[in-house]
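Hi Y.,

Following your request, here is the sequence exactly as I used it, all 266 residues.
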Amino acid sequence: MPVVDVTILEKLYRDGGAEESLLSQVRELLGDLEVEVEEVRRNFRSWAILRLRGPDAEEAAERLVGEFDTVRSLFDLAPGDVIYGRIIDLYRVGYGVYVDVGVVGPRVVDALVPLYRLREQLLGGEKASVRDIGRSFGFVENLPLEVEIVEVNEEEGEIEARLTDEQVEYLLEMAADPYDRLIVAGVTRKRLQRALNRAGFGRRVLRIERWGLLENEVVLAEGTDAPGVLSRVGPYLKGAEVELVYDDKFLERIGFIPSPEGPILE
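Below is the corresponding structure, written out as tokens. Let me know if you'd prefer a different format.
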């Protein structure tokens, strides 16, 4: 009976229902194939590894890679590649944001989205620190971001990237509309909804947008105060990373109004 191990770009960095949620997605995707998910584990960077057994194991692996992407060698990466990676070591450095794009060989290399690119793409070139940008647009550890590879330096083991146009448009729309948000990483959507209900805010939630297995965006009803929600729901989200997207004091201070149509400066 064929057995295939496949690593996908979905992270299992916390427990609490993550594995069950992933299995549910995978079984739905592979429902018409004769294959069993025999085991789920994680690699040294928390990417999920699935052991598939059955006559259609190889086809199932190909389908999973097509849906989730997979790890790769630095030498397999090229400018123009688009990858749905994850923020890693947020605020570790002040010159940009690192994104884990699944490069594990011949050594681990994360892609850097430089600060100047973040300023150009999200703030129309306005001066801002990585922390100011991250807090304004809801960056948290492990948040999925779609990036385009700009340059690969194989000798130095360096990767430079930019946010895709689609990712920029989404972030700008999110920051510009009137609805406050919570960006939460480290809890499944089901458990996040349960936490909001227990805190008494279930009816103040317009929708929960799923960014990844453990990463979600909570869109609050107009007029709901995001900091107030966080103060009450926080005890039910212990261990999760949470950032607010709301009337932002930094953006107000520089007179910047986010807009997908281009920067608007007051």
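The CA atoms of residues 11 and 46 lie 5 Å apart.

Thanks again,
Q.
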